[in-house]
Amino acid sequence: MNTPLIDISPDQWAIVHKILQQHVPQHEVWAFGSRAQWTAKEYSDLDLVVITDKPLPLDVVASLKEDFSESDLPWKVDILDWATTSESFRKIIERDKVVVRESKRGLGMSSEWSRVTVEEITSKVAMGPFGSNIKVSTFVPSGVPIISGEHLRGTKVQDGRFNFITEEHAEKLKNSLVLRGDVIFTHAGNIGQVAVIPETSRYERYIISQRQFFGRCKRELVLPEYLTYFFHSPEGKHKLLSNASQVGVPSIARPSSHLKSIEVPLPSIDCQHAICDVLSVLENRIDHNRTLATNLEAIARRLFKSWFVNFDPVRAKAAGDKPPGLADDIAALFPDRLVDSELGEVPEGWSYKPITKIASVLSGGTPKRSVAEYWDGDIPWYSVVDSPQKGDLFVVQTSDYITEEGLKKSAAKLLPPGTTILSARGTVGKLALTCGPMTINQSCYALKGALGDYFTHFTISNSIEWLKQNVHGAVFDTITKSTLDEMIVVAPPEDIAQAFEKVINPLMTKIESSVRERIILSSIRNILLPRLISGKIRVSDAQAQIEEALT
Predict the structure, then answer these.
(1) Would you put residue 33 in left (φ > 0), alpha (ψ -120 to 50) or beta?
(2) How does pLDDT run across 5-52, given as a tens digit for each residue?
(3) Active-site residue, 45 included
(4) DSSP for 507-520?
(5) Which residues contact 483 (CB under 8 A, 6 or more apart)?
(6) Which one, 212, 221, 237, 471, has the greatest CB density within 10 A?
(7) 343 burial level (CB within 10 Å; 0-12, 13-18, 19+)
(8) DSSP string of 389-445?
(9) Could you give the dihedral angle defined by the CA atoms of residues 170, 173, 176 and 181, in that order, rounded to the nearest 10 degrees?
(10) Which one is catalytic: 7, 11, 47, 72?
(11) Is residue 159 among the annotated active site residues?
(12) CB atoms near residue 539 (< 10 Å)
C-alpha cells in the first residue's frame, strides 16, 4: 500500500486508508487543502472528499466522522461528500486535489483494468526495409508514399510532402507496408516518435522508412488511437525508451522484440473509446489553432511581399490601374512609378538601407547558473530552444525564467513587447516576436524597428536566407553585428509602414490569441493524458475540465 503524495506519514496513511476501506470501499477519495499542497502546519486538518454521484447515507457519514475522531491521528480529519458540495467549492477542491484512493467502479478508473503486453494486442510488429532497398534512385513522381520521421508529428501521421516508390517495388517490401490504423514508431534518430495513420489519411497504404517500425492492432482488443496515446504518456515514453542508446545516432535496441514486451494498461473497448474521444477533442482544437495561425501568418507574409518586395500597388498605379484590394486612402499613399537605384528598382521616394538604420539592435546575456537566486523567477529568458513553431510567430513562454536580481547582475536586458528576436549563433536564423516583457541569452539579437514591429519582423524574415549565407565562424555559424550592418532592406516612408501595421494588426492579434489558447489546451492535454491512460481520473471529470477550459 503506497502512501499518496500528501503531507502525512505512512503510519498515518495506514489509519486513514483502513477507515476509508471500512466505510466507503467503492468510492474514490481526494485530499485537498494544506496537506495536499504541502503547506500544512503540524496540527493542520486533513481535508478529504468522498466522490459520490448521490449523497452518502447519513449513518455512513456519521460512522466515518466517529472513527476518525476516535483514531490515533494527531490531527482532525474533515470529510466532505461530493454530491452535497456546492459547485463553487468543488472548483476550489479541484484546483489542488490529490487522488488518495481510486474508485473500485466506474468508467475510466484502473481497478478493473488488465495489463497486457503489446504482443498480446497486436497482430503484427515489423521493421522498415533495409536502407539499400529504398534509395533516391528508386523514387518516382507518384506511387506508394514513404513515411519518415518528418511525418510523425504529434499523435497522427501527417500527410505532406512524400517521396514515392512504385507499386511493384512496394510489393517486394510488403512486410513494411502500413495501412490506416497502424501505429508507427521511430527507432533511430528522433527516437520516441509515435503516431497512428488516421482513417482520414490521403493514401490507403504507405511504406515506412528504415528508421521506422510499426504495430498493427487487434482492434477487438485495443484501439490504435489508445495505444498511440499510451506511448505519449510518461509511462509509455519511459518504457519505449528504456532500451535506447544515445551513443552516436540515438536508437532503440531490438525495437520489435522490445515493443512486444512492453506492458500496457488495457481498459474495455468502450472505455478506450471514451478516453480517445476526450483527448481527440483537445487534439482537434489544437490542430485547428495551429492551422489557423499558419494560414493567418501566410496571409500577412503575402501582403508584406506584395507591398515591399514585388511593389504590386506601385506597379498597378504605374499601369493606370487601382491597386486591387486596397482602400482608397491606403492606395493613395503609394507612388505611381518605380525608379532605378544601385540595388535595383525601388518605388519613388523609397530607399534601401541597412537594417541597423531602421531598427535598434540589442544583445542578451545569461545570469550565472551557479547562483540559485538568479533563476526560477517570473521574467521569461529566451534561448533558441524556445523558437516558435512555423506559423506561430510569437513566443509566449520560455523554458527558463530569471529573477529581478538575475536581470540586474547580468548582461540580459528586458525587451518590450513587439521585439523581434533573431538567433545568431549555432542554430542561426530562428525568429520570434515577443508579446510581453522578455529577456534573451547572448546567442540572440533583439531588434526593435522604427517603422513598426510587424514591418521589422517580416523584413528580417524576408532576408533570413541572405543572413544564413553570410554567417561567420570557423566552429559555429554566427551572425555578427557587422552582418546586420551589411543586410540591406527596403525602407518605405513611415506612413506606408504604419498602414501595413494597421492592416495586419487584426491578423497578428488572432495569431497571438491562437498561440496562447494552444498553450493552455496543450497543458490540459498533458495533464489529462497520463491520468486518463493510467485510470486515475474519470472520463466524465476530464470532460468537465475540458468544457470549462473551452468556455
Answers:
(1) left
(2) 898 988 899 899 889 988 887 788 999 999 988 888 888 899 999 998
(3) yes
(4) HHHHHHHHHHHHHH
(5) 467, 470, 471, 472
(6) 212
(7) exposed
(8) PTTT-EE---SEEE-HHHHHTSS--PBPTTPEEEE-BSS---EEEESS-BEE-TTEE
(9) 40
(10) 47
(11) no
(12) 21
Contacts of 446 (CB under 8 A, 6+ apart): 361, 362, 363, 364, 413, 415, 419, 420, 421, 422, 440
Check 11, 45, 321, 485 and give the catalytic one. Answer: 45
**Which ranges constitute the DSSP H helices of 309-411?**
312-318, 328-331, 355-358, 404-408
Q: Name which of 110-124, 187-201, 254-268, 274-288 the model is least confident about.
A: 110-124
Q: Which domains does the chain have, with CATH numbers?
A: 10-101 (3.30.460.10), 115-266 (3.90.220.20), 351-491 (3.90.220.20)
Buried/exposed code over 415-454 (b: 16+ C-beta within 10 A; e: otherwise): beebbbbbbbbeebbbbbbbbeebbbbebbbbbbbebbbb
Residue 547: partners with Cβ closer than 8 Å, 6 or more residues away:
none
User: Which DSSP state fits 141?
Assistant: S
More confident site: 103 or 264: 264
* Residue 447 near residue 363 (C-beta atoms within 8 A): no
HEC assignment per residue over 47-111: EEEECCCCCCCHHHHHHHHHHHHHCCCCCCEEEEEHHHCCHHHHHHHHHHCEEEECCCCCCCEHH
Taking only the tens place, the pLDDT of each residue in 356-372 is 999 999 999 999 999 99
Structure-block grid coordinates of residue 362: 540589442
The total number of residues shown for the chain amounts to 551
Beta bridge partners of 400: 381
For the cut 80, the answer to whether the pLDDT of residue 202 exceeds it is yes
Sign of CA dihedral 193, 197, 203, 208: positive
Q: Which amino acid is at 394?
A: F
At 219-238, the pLDDT tens digits run 999 999 999 999 999 999 99
Can you tell me whether residue 122 is helix, strand or coil? strand
Task: Tell me the per-residue pLDDT of 491-523, one tens digit each, with 9 for 90 and over.
Answer: 999 999 999 999 999 999 999 999 999 999 988
Is the Cβ–Cβ distance between 153 and 287 less than 8 Å?
A: no
What's the rounded Cα separation, in Å, for the pair 223 and 197?
12
CA distance linking residue 294 with residue 221, whole number of Å:
38
For 277-319, how does the pLDDT look when each residue is reduced to its tens digit (9 = 90+)? 989 989 889 989 999 999 999 999 999 999 999 999 999 999 9
Residue 183 pLDDT class (50, 70, 90 cuts): very high
Q: Is the whole-model pTM more than 0.85?
A: no
Residue 345 has pLDDT above 70, yes or no: yes
What is the percent of the chain where pLDDT is above 90? 68
Cell numbers 540586474 label which residue? 408
Strand order in the sheet with 29-32: 77-81, 46-50, 29-32, 98-101
Q: How many Å is the maximal CA-CA distance in the chain?
A: 95
